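GGDEF domain-containing protein
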Amino acid sequence: MLGDIAYALDQSAIVAITDRTGKITYVNELFIKMSKYRPEELIGATHAIINSGYHSKEFFKNMWATIGRGNIWHGEIRNRAKDGSYYWVDTKIIPFLNEKGIPSRYISIRNDITERKRLEEKIQKDAEVYRVITENSMDFISIIDLEGNFQYVSPTHKHLLGYDLGQLECANIHSIIAKEDYAAFDKAVAMVGDAPAVLEVRVLDENNRVKTMEASLNLIHEEGEYYNHLVVAMHDISWQKESEVIIQDLADNDQLTSLFNRNAFSENLDVALKGRKRGSKVGLVYLNIDRLRNVNDSFGHETGDYVLSIIAERLKDALSTEDIIGRISGDEFAFTTLKAVSEEEVERLTGEIKSCLEMPIQIDEETYSISISCGIALFPDHAETAAELIMMADKALHYVKEQGGGIAKMYAPEAATKTLERILLENELRKSVQLGHFTLEYQPKMNLAIGELAGVEALVRWNHPDLGRIPPDKFIPLAEETKIILPLGEWILREACKQAARWTRQGFKPFRIAVNMSAVQLEEPDIVETIERILMEENVSPELIEIELTESAFADREEMRYTIQRIRDLGIIIAIDDFGTGYSTFSYIKELPADILKIDMSFVKDIDVNQNSRAIVKAIVTLADTAGLNVIAEGVETVEQAEILHGLGCREGQGYLYSRPLPPEECEYMFTNVSKDE
């Protein structure tokens, strides 16, 4: 019987016998197999031959003290095999006592626990990793039961919210959630299953300050202590929500006057018209401050802005709270007359408001007289939609301006007919496209961090042989309206590509040339094929071309997205121009396939003195980073502006600080030292 037990033990355990001094006198086959030593190497040696160096001297001192007193020692030991590999054994050392009760030899019985120890080490390592992550993460991680009671809370709840972790672990998650969000959170808890539930929730810190969190709830499916509990991971997005509020204000409101901008005005007008009873009338007035440019030239742009703010305040005072008021562009405003019930009443009310607006303004101890031009359209007499009504009021205003301005005029079909001057200008525009009276000038864009050239923007110039240089703001709208922009735009793109090829052949480092493109061009069904053909014919890499889309290109996001993406698929960079001046709201940015955002110069011009402008630019940069967009600032005129923009995270700048728009040969002279290959 004892022999059978000894045999079974010898086959299943690692067995060794030593004399009282520790010299090995016997080892079984498993000992030899584990240690990888030959029997003759082991017999006569001590267990030091397999010492791994893992355990301290104190460890072995205690072991010898135990067995030296005749007691059984039990523990776990890491050994080192002959080939240098390590293995763990669960060990019992049993002393054999002589007649005097003194140990004469020892038998050690070991079991291989290497795999178990490796698993324990992995678990311990993973636990340490998880501990480090949860203690240093900026996220708020907790485990709750299905009733919302905390089972675990990460240290972040103390570091960033100020709560005592011990007290919090005895509380319910409702104790830190705003009451208004209880229902939404509980609904998410009830809905979570195989897929996580994600929601925004407001959390209160120790001082009842609100933080907005994006919370993800995951159900634990694995068997264990927290089976069927929820892991709640919350990420603080308060900064993002604050930035979005600023961006939304930027998207809806003109920053100088706090009135609706063009896009928001159009949207609110649309809502108002759709809510009107059948047969009721709404007057829409488009007004222009005549010769405001003279104020800017004589007194400076700050004074011009002051005049605009005065006009805005007078409009607010003169109109009812139900009326919609907006600043449409630099010197143009629009408002409704919702309470007027007839064409005569709209004209009378417009006249009264015009008189109020034209009251003299005191500027630097001088009195400045204001002249206002107004174009009026009536719903539903002249148009049945907001877009059409705006068009009719705008046409009436243009007619007034062509007649010299200073009056108010109701829309009439004859007011929309072309004047002789307009016909002549359109004729000359068509001829000039055919005869090549246009040139391109290039304005550099600079890297704000290192002061190197980042690219140029191509700007079209019309040099008429008889009429002289005609400003872009006079002929570009006409070109778009008459679709002359199609051949003109194709020429601009081709000329920019030719110039890119020339500069490449001259050895200048590659940089992008930005070309402006209007919504009219994008609406052409073959625009993508036209662009691709020009690139191929001029042998220009698409990466050298950047297309800047005007804000009107974003008016119909769904229709434009596919075209813009196809252009982008060619390898061309897409930039959103004049951000913040109408259609280009952040919601569009997140949806459209764009690469670059250009901050409008109106937010740059006073960034060195206006904290609100700084906050707006910072919010734009932050959210652009979130959307993966590069940011360029337009209208940089001083070193201080450039430094502030760089500090706010803006990467590139463009403006007269670096250079005015230049002909190609002057542009080459300017950037020879920064762009040419060494």
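thats it. The domain at 421-670 is CATH 3.20.20.450 (TIM Barrel). Residues 114-136 form the longest helix (23 residues). bye
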